[in-house]
Each structure stands twice: as structure tokens, then as C-alpha cells.
TrEMBL record, chains A, B:
Keyword list, A-Z: Isomerase, Pyridoxal phosphate
Similarity remark: Belongs to the class-III pyridoxal-phosphate-dependent aminotransferase family.
Gene3D superfamilies assigned: Aspartate Aminotransferase, domain 1 (3.90.1150.10), Type I PLP-dependent aspartate aminotransferase-like (Major domain) (3.40.640.10)
InterPro entries (alphabetical): Aminotrans_3, PyrdxlP-dep_Trfase, PyrdxlP-dep_Trfase_major, PyrdxlP-dep_Trfase_small
Protein name according to UniProt: Glutamate-1-semialdehyde 2,1-aminomutase
EC number from the UniProt entry: 5.4.3.8
Molecular function per GO: glutamate-1-semialdehyde 2,1-aminomutase activity; pyridoxal phosphate binding; transaminase activity
Principal EC category: isomerase
Amino acid sequence: MDRINRPALTDRLREETALFATRHPGSAAQARNSAAHLLTGNGMNWWRMWPGGFPLCIREGQGAEVTDVDGNVLVDLCLGDTGAMTGHAPKGATEAIAASLYKGSSFMLPTEDHLWVAEELERRFGFSHWQYALSASDANRFAIRWARMATGRKKVAIFNHAYHGAVDEALAELDESGAVVPKAGNIGYGIAPSETTKVVEFNDLEGAKAALADEDVAIFLVEPALTNMSIVLPDPGFLEALSEACRDRGTVFLMDETHTISEGYRGYTGTHGIRADMIVIGKPIASGIPAAVYGFASDLAQTIESRYPAPEDEDALGIGTTLTGSAVTLAAIRGTLEHVLTEEAHRHMDALAEHYEAGVKSLFADLGLDWSVIRMGARVEFLYDNTNPRNGSDVLNSFKDYDLNAYLHVALLNRGFVLTPFHNMALMCPATTRAQVDAFHAAFREILEPVVGRD
Amino acid sequence: MDRINRPALTDRLREETALFATRHPGSAAQARNSAAHLLTGNGMNWWRMWPGGFPLCIREGQGAEVTDVDGNVLVDLCLGDTGAMTGHAPKGATEAIAASLYKGSSFMLPTEDHLWVAEELERRFGFSHWQYALSASDANRFAIRWARMATGRKKVAIFNHAYHGAVDEALAELDESGAVVPKAGNIGYGIAPSETTKVVEFNDLEGAKAALADEDVAIFLVEPALTNMSIVLPDPGFLEALSEACRDRGTVFLMDETHTISEGYRGYTGTHGIRADMIVIGKPIASGIPAAVYGFASDLAQTIESRYPAPEDEDALGIGTTLTGSAVTLAAIRGTLEHVLTEEAHRHMDALAEHYEAGVKSLFADLGLDWSVIRMGARVEFLYDNTNPRNGSDVLNSFKDYDLNAYLHVALLNRGFVLTPFHNMALMCPATTRAQVDAFHAAFREILEPVVGRD
């Protein structure tokens, strides 16, 4: 039952889009000029998907706020889609990174930070051995390679509609008949993903066991909760049972915390005490400097080290690129762990997210909207239905309401709030305040009320 | 005919390795402690390949010098294997990057630098449309995807023993029968590379034409000169003819300037006026901040844009990751182009590299060593033979003299000079001085003389 007043929505979307254009002439000019110099007018593909007809051009960000080139100040609940979960320009990390720049950024050699970071990561996340990468995508790619080396197997297993970045093996999905096909939008694959990848519905333990039964799966890339289309939480005991099943079948069990790092100080893995063979942590780990880390349980590290050729024989190709583990990335990770993503900061972010969640729930209730609100630590999503999704297929169409999406996002931008464009995610950073969340609630009410039908 | 006195080499290698351990106790301790916390004891795989038994642990770098944790100051001719071709902590770029950190590093939205950089790249390299990436590997991956979209084809062509980073499709080589097989050291491939990749010997125009004849090659990844095992220069007219052949067969012709950017201010492509459909530039482009750029000729850009789905329909998966094109990476690219890798700086680097080349040639002549010295702009390599290599197979074994490699590198490190460990590359940066190159020549003579046989 659509509780949205569609004629009102059409009118308001037109008005808000016009207002958006009026209030952002500088961003509009940047977008116009970019059309002749950047492919599809965008330096980065995802800008195309920002609502309003063109992306905001940002002049600077401080804490939970950004200022665009037209001087508009906005509360940023998108935070670079997790890349800026630290908040913009977080003081302790920014100073550490800047200092490291003046001492050289890239040597292809270790610095003292490499060991400090590995020790801190072990303390926090419990994995004994670490390596570095430039992105969580790269970390996943390298993890797949190490797992293939350790197991002598080739296949990769993933959940349907999970997110593992730009990794070829992970850009697969199930079609209606249950066959593995290229994910919609996978424009440039060279090999049918069914040759490399098994896809299982999230929360389907029997399906996962069936995929593992042939003992040809090197690694299961596990997104602890689905995060790329709303949030789908695991059933109680699901991840624990899957971890056991992987161990039974000799498959490397990897927790990809690319987004679930919002769950807390120790990630989803540590917070919930999930046993895993590997972990990947990217995005905010270096306060916006491109970097990721990945960790190995000690028995897996031993297996890999025992199979590794001597340095004079062979390099391991496909692992790392030249700037991987550079001095500046490690200084940035250290600064972030030491000063920004602390236990105390996560407590603050969690509490604020709870407050955000409660306010949005109460607003939906007031308006008679039976919409879901789901929280994972500092991250909160809402859906335009209440179907209690248990897997990616359940939520696939839940936010494909293009007009409603566009209206909510543009109207919020016009009132000074940035919500993640691809879905309806809000994220709290250490600098986000209760007053900002309260102001969001008020603005959200103001824009929702006029488009909700009162039948 | 081996002109090396092997017994003398064995003795000197032992002595220099012992001296190396004595002079670098802090680096040795860091390596020992890292064994328990970093996979294979290394945060990044390539550290394993540094000579001397453990990699130097670096405290800081300034210009062409690095200082290790034991206080040794070394002239850095490796420069992060091109990542620091800018020199360490280059002033203009460092200040620009630091300033950008204090204004926020990652928004998933454009800043004014995005357009500035694209315009400067067009001015310098001549390609009309640009996108950004975190590494040249990523840029190559994305280029492959765009080319597959534009051509509707799947296959990728590469040169035997060319370097394109960690891209799966490029980790292939020819075996003795001419079949495409996984590159030695490719530990974790999931698909036989022959399914995705055609491999051609460098400088073999007829071979390249044969690979293109079936019109199933989406893109030819072209390393303008082979750079990962010494330097193999293209025959006069080879790249021009290959470019024509690709155009005739509808294959996207990509110049991967990952290493050949040393050739000059406008890269190999611009310096030699090669027509290409795409170009990739990574490593030093952001003064050590992980970033890369890739450009499209306007007709290819138009083809892609015409085939691209509307934003409300589909995202293009596998292109970009969250921090791609972030504010700090673009500030770093801008700072580097504006202040560091200027035309004047490249003139200085070129002249010094010529001086380095002349001194090494003269030393080899004095010692009766018929060894090659090859230069590509600011980059100079030497080989332990003079076979005039024309392709990767010709040079495959030229520097597999493990003892000689180890001795030269360790003895140079003991005398305060860092040469690229995997091969014998020296690179000049804007801060390298003539006095440093002269001092290198003297040190190189001092260590070579005792191991050259006088028959």
C-alpha cells in the first residue's frame, strides 16, 4: 500500500530540484565545465548517481560538516559513504599525516609505523599477521590469491548482493533460476562469473553448506551484514555456523568489514566474537588516505609462509602494488587508530546512531509509514517498506523508488543535510552532535509530511 | 664469458653482508620483530626482495636522500621504484597536500581540483577526457572494462614480460612453445590466463597483427618500453605501426605510462607523439599519495558515453572504489603537476640521467665489462651482458645472477646508495644533484673493481 501522495511528490520534486539549482550555481558550473573533460562528466563514476542533476562541488569539510563552493554548509550524514567515518579532517590523524608528508610518503621500504600498526591491529581485532593494501577491494583481491595458494583451490563464494568493492569475482549475482550471472551493471567482465564464483543467499546456511560441499571453494568472502542495499543483519548464530562449515570444508572464512566496521571499535568480527581466518578493513582506517589492512589467523599465516618460495626464486605476483604499505598510508592508519577511531569515539557514534534511529522511527510512526529502520553500530538505514528482509533478494527493489529517492535527497540537501545517495544510509562520526541529529529529524519531518497521503 | 671473479665475489658478498648487519641494527630489529606480526615478516610483499637479509627501516626522506632508523643517510636512486620520482617530500606538492588534509580528504564528491587537473592533463598529454583511480593497476583494470564496453569484445593483449601492475589479465607470459601460461610467481589465479589474454613478444609487429586479426581483442595494454626487467626500447616505428594496426582492427590502444613516465614531461606518448586511445599514468603523479589518472581520446569517450545507461538505471560496477578521485588525491595530483613534475624539472632529471649513464658506461669500459647501459629519460638500467635485447625473452635471464645482484646492492647500501632491488634501475628526481651522481660513480667503481677478473 503506497502511502505516498504521488501528485504531491511530483510537484515537490520539481520545486526542490529547481531550488537546488538556484542554491548551487557554483556546483552546477563545475558540472557543466566537467562534461568536456571528465568521462561522463565525472571524475569518479559514482558522482553520476548523486541526486539533483549534478553533484555538489565541495570546498572543505570539518568534522561532520561540509561547505560547498557556493558557501552552503551541510551536515554530512553520508561521510564519503564510510570513507570519512572519522569525520572530516580529524585533528589527531590529520596532524600525524601532515607530519609524515614532510618526512616522505613512499619508500617501498618499512617505517616504524608498520610494526606499531600490526601490533595495534592484533590487539584490537585479534588476528596475528597483517599485510597492507590501498583499498578494501585490493585487500580482497590479495586475500583471494593467498587463499588459493593456501588451499590449492580456485573458487570464491559470496553472498547474493553483498558488497566487496570492485573485485571481479564478487561482481556476480543469482538470476531467478538460481544461476550465477554477472551482476547488473557489470559492464566489462571478461569471464562468465559462474566460472570463478559461487553465490549463496545471505542467511541461507544450507545453501552455503551445499556450495562448500564439493571442497573446491578456496575462500568465502563474508560481508557480516549486507550493507549495500539497506542493512540486512545475520540471523542469530548464522555467522558462527557458517564459520564452522568453512572450517569443516577447508575453506578460508574471510570477514570483509568494509562497511560493517561501523559496528564498533573492534568491527563486527570482534564485537560479536566471530572466528575467522581473515579480516579486511578499509575505507576509514586511514582517515581518507587510500589504504586498507588485512589480517590472517596464525594457522593460515603459517600455511602460507610454509608454501612461499624463497626471495631469490620468485616474487608473488598479483599481491600489492608499488605504493602499497607506503610510509604515508601507515602514518595515516596509525594516526586514525591512535587518535580517531577510539573506543570512546565509537561509544559516542553508537549512542548518536541510536538517537537518530529512534527519531526516524518515531517520525515514521507519527506519519503512519510502516517503513523499516535498521541500525548497525554507527550506521542507520531506512527502507520504504517493512518486509523484514533476510537476504539481498528481499531488499532488491525496496529503494528503487526513483522519484521518492530523488525528492528526499534533494530536499534534504536544500535544508543542509547530506544523506548517502545510493540508498538511505546515515552514518555518525566522532564529531557528529546530538543537535545535528535533532535538526535532521526536524528537516526530515518537514519534507516527509507534505508527500505522505492521509488516507 | 664471465668476467666476474667468482671466488672474490663470494668473499666480498660475505664481508659486505656482515658489514650491512653491523651498520643497520635498528632495521634488523624491526625485521625480527615484524616476523611475528606481518605475513612473511613483511607488510608489503616486495620488501622480501631487498638484498642484505632484511629491508632498511626508513625514518625519513628529503629530496633524493633517505635516513634510516640507525641514522645512516643514503642517496636514493630507487625512489620507491618510481613512486617517489618527485623526490621525497617535494616542497610545493607537500604543502598543497597538507593544506588539503586540513580541509577534508574524502567526500565522494568533486572539488575544484578535479576540473583543474583534467584540464592540465589534457594540455600536457593531449587526451580529452579523464577519470581517476588509486593505482595504475586500478586504472588498467577500469580501462579494460571501459574498452570491453566500447568494443563488445572480451580479450586483452599484452607484451611478454611487460609490467601492468597487479591486473589479473596481465599476469600471463609465453612458454617455450609460445602458449599463454600464468606468469612465474602468479600464485593465485582463478582462470587460466589463456582464456582472457593474448601475449605477444615486444617489437614483434607481425605477432601483434596476428593477435589482432580475429577482431576479438578489446584492448592492447602497451608498455611503450619494457621496464620491469631492464629497459627494452621499441624499434623505430614499432609503436606507430602497432597503433595503426589496433585502429584497423577496432582494438583500443592503451599506453600504460606506469614506468615510462620517466621519459619526460609529457610521458612517452607525448614525447614521441604516439597516437593512442587511452593513457594510464600512476605512481609519482600524486607525490606518493596513492593515485592514478587515465585519459581517453575524444572519439572513445563519445562511444562510451553513448552506451552508458542513465544514472537512475545502473551503476557501472567494477569502475572505481570509494576513495577513488577523493579530495586529497586530487590536491596531490594538482600539487605535483603544478610544482614538481614540471618541464624544467624533467630537463634537470634527463641531464643528470645522461651524466649517470655516461659515467657507468665509462666505468664498464675501464673494467673491460661488455655490459649494456640503457636510458629512458630520467631512468637508467644496466645489464650484465650486451645482447641488445629486443623483447622480454631476450633479457629474462640477464640479471638472474643472485650473488652478483646481492653483492652490488648490499655493497652500495653500505656506501650510502640505494639502487632498485629487483633489477639495476637508477632514477633521478628533481632534487638529485650532480655531486650525488659523481659520488655514486666513485662508489660503484670501488665495489666493482675487486670482483672483476683481469684475464
